[in-house]
Write a structure and sequence with these properties.
Layout (H helix, E strand, L loop, with lengths): L6 H10 L7 H11 L6 E4 L4 E7 L33 E5 L6 H12 L9 E11 L3 E5 L11 H13 L3 H14 L11 H10 L5 E5 L8 E5 L1 H7 E14 L2 E10 L11 E3 L1
Parallel strand pairs: 5-6
Antiparallel strand pairs: 1-5, 2-3, 2-4, 3-7, 4-8, 6-7, 8-9, 9-10
Length: 273
């Protein structure tokens, strides 16, 4: 099945939907009309490191591997890359251990109350996961929505421009990338288009690879299916860290209170300014 020739009309209809009315059936119908979408695939090869984080809640038990992984009880809200009732593993990906501080900071921008100036100090549990079998990810490609696009997204964009010439594909890819780049989200239904697009992507790919909105594309996030986490990733360990804010200075202090033994050297006392 090729991409629909009427892609401009489909994009216009998607873009004009009143998401406040939660037009679930309309979005599903329009997504099914799109047809096949050529894409640039990102493969995470064995050895690649993925970092995940969770804000510590008093009394919560973090002594099981599952407590650091995807939520086995699906939530009831839309998120950037999942629909209600669907569990997805969200994390930040690195090229190597040296990039792990950026991955931690990428995670913090997504989950932390300290960075949003709601708290001056909080505890975050960072976990590390190693890829043990190739993971295929659909790449969200577009740099123009971000002030500081990282080298990975720029390289993907270069590949996309060299390999894909179809203007219909370019238009739809740009539209979806813009949906993934939404930053000021007042309610979960504003994620409906990117979430339902992701739902269909997961029927072919292991997950999605996309720029971090919170830090203007400087880091890369992943959204991965639970069954892929269980079979193609290995839990390495988790570390208890304090996140402290002093005006615009954010400090992550690794307390060396490992919940599990780590197989890599964690970053200690790292400053981000």
């Amino acid at each position: 099945m090729e991409m629909n020739d009427n892609i401009d009309e489909i994009i216009q209809k998607l873009d004009s939907l009143d998401l406040c009315k939660k037009p679930r059936e309309e979005i599903i119908s329009l997504m099914r009309q799109v047809g096949s979408i050529p894409s640039v695939v990102t493969i995470l090869h064995p050895g690649r490191l993925i970092v995940r984080g969770r804000v510590y809640t008093e009394g919560e038990d973090f002594t099981s591997i599952q407590s650091h992984s995807y939520n086995p009880i699906p939530g009831k809200k839309y998120q950037r890359a999942n629909i209600p009732g669907q569990s997805i593993f969200y994390g930040a990906v690195t090229s190597d251990v040296e990039e792990e501080p950026l991955a931690r900071f990428t995670i913090l921008t997504e989950i932390s109350n300290t960075l949003s100036h709601k708290e001056e100090r909080e505890k975050v549990m960072f976990s590390a996961w190693r890829v043990i079998e190739d993971i295929s990810l659909y790449s969200i490609i577009q740099s123009k929505n971000y002030q500081t696009p990282n080298n990975q997204i720029l390289e993907l964009e270069k590949r996309f421009n060299n390999e894909i010439r179809d203007n219909k594909v370019r238009k739809f890819t740009d539209f979806i990338a813009s949906e993934f780049a939404k930053s000021d989200i007042a309610d979960d239904y504003y994620y409906m288009i990117s979430a339902w697009f992701s739902y269909f992507v997961y029927q072919t790919f292991d997950g999605i690879y996309y720029p971090s909105v919170r830090i203007d594309g400087a880091g890369m996030n992943v959204a991965i299916l639970p069954e892929i986490v269980d079979t193609k990733m290995k839990f390495l360990g988790a570390v208890d860290c304090d996140v402290i804010r002093n005006d615009m200075d954010i400090r992550i202090i690794d307390k060396r209170k490992s919940v599990f033994r780590l197989e890599y050297v964690p970053i200690i006392d790292t400053d981000y300014q």
